[in-house]
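Example protein
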Amino acid sequence: MAVTDAAIDKIKQMILSGELTPGDRLPKEADLAERLGLSRNSLREAVRALALINVLDVRQGDGTYVTSLEPRLLLDTMSFVLDLHRDDTVIQFFEVRRILEPAATAMAAELMGDDEIAELRVILDSLPAEPTIEELVANDLEFHQRIARGSGNSVLCSFIESLSGPTTRARVWRGLTQGGALEKTREQHTAIYEAIAARQPDVARSWATVHVAGVEAWLRKALD
């Protein structure tokens, strides 16, 4: 194992063991290096690497702290990687969406509060009668993100939100080229909302599957 990797692993073990918890400040560099049996250079490299993936927060003149370690924060790095995808992999992102979003939608049908469901209705109603493509896509993203948050699972929500970026271009492309895309989106979003409002997780899951699979099927045909 490389020296820097070993240093990273030792800091990770301190966090996993509870010796360091979210918000804690790391001991002074010299003290921590001695305790872990590392050179200060190796420790510095490890801290730099862990800061890049949002595990540590280096505050100039103040010290180095463990971040909140919330899933959304830790998955920011994955979002960056996903943004570098090639167009020929976008189908694979839709395949993952088709697995995750129906599950989140079913969970939301059971767990979303009445106020959250009312907000979902507001999102539906906020789409103009004749929206621009940008308005349609923005509304679509907000609708699905609100449902993901309603699942009550922050990790699942973060994964779904990370997938939004790589699929946005395909959503715009569909809105520009597929006849009836607006009507289909409205109809399917309404069906998903009604299933959630009626507390019907199986129906919500089915409509979410139809919705994502429909876009995926269109994209496969368009790419062919």
Summary: The mean pLDDT is 85. The CA atoms of residues 29 and 44 lie 8 Å apart.
